[in-house]
Amino acid sequence: MRVQTRPGRLALGLLAVPLLITAGCGRVPTPTKAGDAGGGGHPQVDSAGKVVCRDGSPGVTAKELRIGVDAELTGKAALSGANAKRSLDMAVDDINKTGGILGKHVTVVYNDNQSTNPGAVNALNKSVSGDNVFALIGPIRSTQVQAMTEIIKSQRLPTMIGATNASLTEQGGGYIFRFRPPDSLTGQAIVAYARKQFSPKKIAILHDSDAFGSGGAAVIEKAAKDAGISVQKASYTTGDKDYTAQLSSLRSFGPDVFTTYATNSEDVVIFARQLQELGITTPVVGGPSITSQVSFDLGQQYLQGWRAIVDFQLNAGDVNKAWAAEYQQRYGSKPDLFGAWQRDAMYFMKAALEKSGCDRQAFLAALHTVETDGVQGHLTSNKQGDVNANLLVVQVRGGGAEVVEDATKLLPAA
Amino acid sequence: MSVSSRLLERPHTLAALLVLLASLPFLVNPFYLGVVVLGVIYALAVLGLYFVMGLAGQLSLAQGAFFGVGAYTAAILSTRFDWPFPATMGATVAAGVLVGVALGYTTLRLTGHYLALATIGFAVIANIVFLHWKPVTNGADGIAGVKPPVVGGFILDQNFFYYYVALAFLAVGALVGWRLKRSRIGLAFLAIREDQLAASTTGINVLNVKVLAFTLSTVYGAVAGGLYAHGLTHYISPDNFAFELSVTMLVMLLLGGQATVPGAIVGAMLVTALPEVLRFLDRYYLAVYGVAVVLLVVFLPQGLWGWLESAVARRPRRLEGR
Amino acid sequence: MDVVVQLGVAGLAIGMIYALVALGFVLIFNAVNVVNFAQGDLAMFPAFVLAFLLTSSRLPLPVAIVGTLLFAVVFGLVFNRLVYHPLRNRSFVPVIIATIGVSVFLKNIALVLFGADPRRIDPLIHGVVRIFGTTVNAQYLVIIGVTVVLLVAQYLVFDRTMIGKQLQTTAQNREMAALLGIRTDRMIAVTFAYSALLGAVAGILVAPLFGVTPELGTLIALKAFAATVIGGFGSVPGAVLGAVFLGLTEIFGAAYVSSDYKDAFAFVILIAVLLLRPQGFFGEKVGQKA
């Protein structure tokens, strides 16, 4: 029995050794030091005043500029990750074919985040410490961006995201730039358009119970109630595929308009089909997942006449048309919103780099000043890092959607 | 049981393992620092499973949910009520005791698989409550800004420092587990695992002892959850604590070797790091990970630690028969 | 009334899907005393195979279905040989872990092989059917019909044929079965093959409604598992009735109580059953089989 005390003392004693060694060890970070600032904050120019990309910043070598991607390549949101990869592969090939960025070959390093928060953080750490990237294109899911935010800030890593929870850019401390309109805008636009078109007294909301769906639903609910419209919500778990119960209870509420805020397009289609089967003909105004390619592929016949507030509309504008044609040729399918924002983020970064050179601080400053025309419309950052405020009202017709009007005009001026 | 005679169960083995863990931040690529912090935190939760499963032989499938209960307890107290780290960690212990005793006395009266079944139920329900009890848990958006511990004016928010905070908890947890196994309580756990009926005839109060083992597991789980909330990302959301996490923790214990403290720790570190190490396999890495789990179970019947033990001892591998 | 019929039919159909997966759980549990964590993926993966045979190989639907069922049977046999068989003399825990490994493998290999785009499978009968003055999706009725036929066939085989009796004896007492000259290893292989077949039927039936994604089986398996407990763990009729009960409770609960807690109903009932009637509605006392 006496032996019992030994492991304790021994272990604690030995434990103390490396702790003591750390005091003088070079690899130990000091608690106050933040991450790599990556430069002095001035644009890099040569003697002739031309912007150049010098080595020295993370991810910048003599030949190469490395951009990380933290995406949902496996797990629940694997579909959005697959589209991100297609879009970015194409964007990078095109950029490299025309000389790269400031003469550097652009390399994209993908790290799967398994569609989970710890996965997103591991992928981020790998991007920063393992791949040593200059900037990051992050996830489309808000909880994962939330989990990454502290590290992004402490590493001062310029990060482009597609996640739409309104608070993300605000919390990002100047390092997070968003290339999709926040839920606060989309949700308000849904209600604004529904009011204009249908003057409803009652609005029903069906939403995914995840952060995206419940966040959007909360915005819709608030906007509707502010306008004196009564609201009933019903939610479903991601992965649950039978909405008979939710639809029955919403139908008995007697809504004038159905709204949806669904994370996955395949869920939207099932919802649409069941609505039809139950004989519900109430008009629907919903979020962007309604007009994804997956929605059209799986069940366009159920979606006819549906309206959606979207940030991406196929073939809207010349940039978009050219991009869609190339995408179609390369992959044999049409692109959609899952992929559009990453392409825009890549070209937006290119534009900023061509003003700042490869100095991270200067790059962050340039991200606030550049303007580009992307496949999602005109892009320029506001103060907190929201780059995309383009919203359209579209209506499903056949295997695509038609633009009804500019949704931003429906919103009170920001 | 000649437990203490096994070579790798000698005290300095555990001490050596802890020393190895303590020097890990100096050995690994900085990218893996986050992974090893996570591994150490998971190891503490898995040590909890070691009591209830490894020693007492009761299958519990809600360790991820207890982890979540601790994480939410710490996160809420830290962000809403500004409790400092030591106070929130104390609260996670209380939360663990509460859940363990309440769930234990209601379900452990039954024999057989019932604890496993009831804990699955608890795991799923807990996650639904995290997701939908908005006023308290902030729903799907989760809770951000959980404060890191502060020691002597230094904010220990970087992985490097937080690692040692987590490791200190793990070391204490491991020593308690180590000593307990060799105490009368530990013997009572083992007796119940081997034969409940026989155990009760020797005067062991089977229900109380099982509840104790279970409560130890919930406390370890909750404390580890608190550590998770305060470190790494300072952010938690319901999807962190899905049923899959409970399953993964079970895998960790089993692959490590279920009836030893070092086994639980090694298993947790291994399973946390394995997908990261396999990243070079690109799209196939998680499929390979799945196969690796099967192969490890088939070819290392006593877990990684048991295999190490027999390899070191150069003795023919012991059969698992009990 | 319309609403009650629509909810009832949908609840019954979903319950039947749970029942097929629940039966897979129970049969394997009875035969080898192990909970198979890959049971949901045994529904998901064949659904992908069917989608593949239909779209890439362009086989006609009946041929593709037969091909998928054959695949499932072979898969069940391989699963038994490579995963269960090497572990057959060990305690139940390593087997559980191995099935978890298989589950991870199947989800991710499906993603690699078939891609992330959800697959669509057209239903056998399109559109809606009018019954009791209201409309319901025809596929719900197909699900109910096919499952009922399958269950009756299963009952006849188990109860009236030699192989059925051998399977039952093996499940009840393996040593005894071996003494009686039953080749228990073979019976266990048959059980795995049949459980995989049940999973495939569930996957094929549900695919036209839900679409096919790697996560298809996850939630279904969890609910099916709850159903086996509610019905009485280890009981075949219990699993079926528990599943139907669960399908109906869930849908009416979500419609009239709260959709937020739709998934919670199953597990609140599960815990209530464990506390009040631990052997389930139909189970005999399981005792200490483990």
UniProtKB/TrEMBL annotation, chain A:
PROSITE patterns: PROKAR_LIPOPROTEIN. Pfam families: Peripla_BP_6. Keywords: Signal. Residues 1-23 form the signal peptide. Residues 65-400 form the Leucine-binding protein domain. Belongs to the leucine-binding protein family. This is Amino acid-binding protein. It comes from Planosporangium mesophilum.
From TrEMBL, chain B:
It is found in: Cell membrane. The keyword Acetylation does not apply. The chain crosses the membrane at residues 12-28, 83-105, 114-133, 161-180, 211-229, 249-274, 286-308. Keywords: Cell membrane, Membrane, Transmembrane, Transmembrane helix. Its main location: membrane. It is a multi-pass membrane protein. GO terms for cellular component: plasma membrane. GO terms for molecular function: branched-chain amino acid transmembrane transporter activity. PANTHER family: HIGH-AFFINITY BRANCHED-CHAIN AMINO ACID TRANSPORT SYSTEM PERMEASE, HIGH-AFFINITY BRANCHED-CHAIN AMINO ACID TRANSPORT SYSTEM PERMEASE PROTEIN LIVM. This is Branched-chain amino acid ABC transporter permease.
TrEMBL record, chain C:
The chain crosses the membrane at residues 6-29, 61-80, 92-116, 136-158, 188-210, 264-282. It is a multi-pass membrane protein. One of its GO terms (cellular component) is plasma membrane. One of its GO terms (biological process) is amino acid transport. It comes from the Bacteria. GO terms for molecular function: transmembrane transporter activity. Keywords: Amino-acid transport, Cell membrane, Membrane, Transmembrane, Transmembrane helix, Transport. InterPro entries: ABC_transp_permease, BCAA_transport_permease. It is found in: Cell membrane. Pfam families: BPD_transp_2. Belongs to the binding-protein-dependent transport system permease family. LivHM subfamily. This is Branched-chain amino acid ABC transporter permease.
